Known about the structure:
Layout: H1 3-26, H2 35-47, H3 52-59, H4 63-75, E1 79-83, E2 91-95, H5 97-118, H6 123-140
Antiparallel strand pairs: 1-2
Helix pairs in contact: 3-4
Amino acid sequence: MAENALFMxxxxxxxxxxxxxxxxTKETGNLAVTPxxxxxxxYIAINQPVSLSEISDCMHMSMPNTSRELKKLxxxxxxxxxATAEDRRKMDxxxxxxxxxxxDGIFQRIEAQFNRRMESLSEDERLELERALDLLHAKMFS
Length: 142
């Protein structure tokens, strides 16, 4: 396969991932957070503890905007900051107990949608999909 064709398949795949992610997360309930705040919470839930700069970089947000959104999430008791053990000036950000409960509930609803999509697959197809995801993660997303 030509390199350009493989690249275009990758672009189409990543666009489809974004579309499906949007579809699966928009039905997560009436959240008291904005879409940007939800994406920050999702990132924290998967990667915690994280730094302000890690969130800013991943979300493509300026540091001041990221800091402002985190302050709002702290005010809603969904995340918390704590000084790192190595450097008291740096802060680790993680979900609060309320934030963890909220994200666990959202992930359960997303998992139910995922399971509905997987119902029609045979066991062999499920294993093939799992191997494909492992390969994609190892070679393209690590």
